[in-house]
Amino acid sequence: MERIAIAQIGDCLLVTIQVDMHDRLALTLREDLGQRLVQTQATGVLLDISGLDTLDTFIARVLAGIASMSKLLGAETVIIGMRPAVAMTLVELGLTLDGVNTALDVERGMALLRRKNA
Amino acid sequence: MPLETVSVDTERDVSRVRRAITAYADNLSFDLLARTHLVTAASELARNMLAYAGGGSVRIAKLRHEARVGLKATFEDQGPGIENLDEALSDGFSSSLGLGLGLGGARRLVDDFELETAVGEGTTVSIASWHEPDRHPPGGP
Ligand SMILES: Nc1ncnc2c1ncn2[C@@H]1O[C@H](COP(=O)(O)OP(=O)(O)OP(=O)(O)O)[C@@H](O)[C@H]1O
Ligand SMILES: [Mg+2]
Predict the structure, then answer these.
(1) Residue nearest ligand 1's atom 13 by CA
(2) What ipTM score was computed for the predicted complex, to two decimals?
(3) In terms of CB atoms within 10 Å, which of A39, A42, B6, B64 comes out highest?
(4) Domain interval for residue B28
């Protein structure tokens, strides 16, 4: 089955989404990530969406759901690399993704996690 | 000019619709923001068709008006129709567990938006966006 890879960097899990993420793939990612968080006791999740060229209400809801789930499992989530056109579209849709941390790139995301978890 | 018809029966077809519209928008040299807006609106409408009408079809067509070219997508289903259109179009109304942003959001994201619905017969939503190719030369600033 097709899945999105989850890499571990120190205390963080890094997920790079490169494809047009169809719904099943997004839901599988949420499940896989939950398991990996429990296994690794990671304290941070970096979701790199720089490869994603559209984000509709469903996928946005899954990403927000991943962030809430991770929080319950002891990890902060940072969404990385949202494209400007995607961000503008989300605003137009009325989706503000409140409560989700964002950063421009992986490095800044890591720095944000270190501050949050300090 | 008709380009393609995509039938939407499963969740995979929703991403097929996104990919098709992305490709045609690139082909017509839409700028990135216009493309993202149109594809996102299409994604919402294809999803609605699947969720509330069990599926339908999407006709994609190229439009031309003087110097402008447009990309149009028509979402047609034979589902239950929408009883209260004002309510359905307003942000925050959802008959399911949704956020109720899809329909109103889609309308805001495109240049043209038309919706016809009849209870018990189905719903047809058309969206289109336009641009003037000469104003946005490919590879230009
Ligand atoms: N093709 C359709 N056939 C029948 N009813 C529809 C159709 N499209 C939308 N609706 C109705 O309009 C309502 C509003 O749609 P909209 O897309 O704005 O919100 P949603 O799908 O409920 O949530 P979201 O899109 O934010 O996940 C839906 O809850 C549904 O009742
Ligand atoms: Mg919807």
Answers:
(1) B88
(2) 0.88
(3) A42
(4) 4-131
Say if A54 is an interface residue toward chain B (CB within 8 Å): yes
Domains and CATH numbers, chain A: 6-117 (3.30.750.24)
CATH number for B35: 3.30.565.10
Ligand 1 contact, A57 CB (< 6 A): yes
Q: What angle do CA A27, A85, B43 make, to 5 degrees?
A: 45
The whole-angstrom distance between A2's CA and the closest CA on chain B is 13
Residue B136 lies in a domain: no
The whole-angstrom separation of Cα A23 and Cα B67 is: 38
Instruction: Give the pLDDT confidence of A46-63 residue by residue, as tens digits.
Output: 999 999 999 999 999 899
B102 C-alpha to ligand 2 centroid (Å): 4
B10, B101, B108, B113: which to substitute to probe chain A, counting the most A Cβ within 10 Å? B101
B79 lines ligand 1 (CB under 6 A): yes
- Residues 6 or more apart whose Cβ sits within 8 Å of residue B72: B60, B61, B62, B63, B112, B126, B127, B128
CB contact under 8 A, B36 and A86: yes
Q: Which helix (H) or strand (E) holds A78?
A: strand A76-80
Specify if B34 maps to a domain.
yes
| pLDDT tens digits, one per residue of B53-65 | 999 999 999 999 9
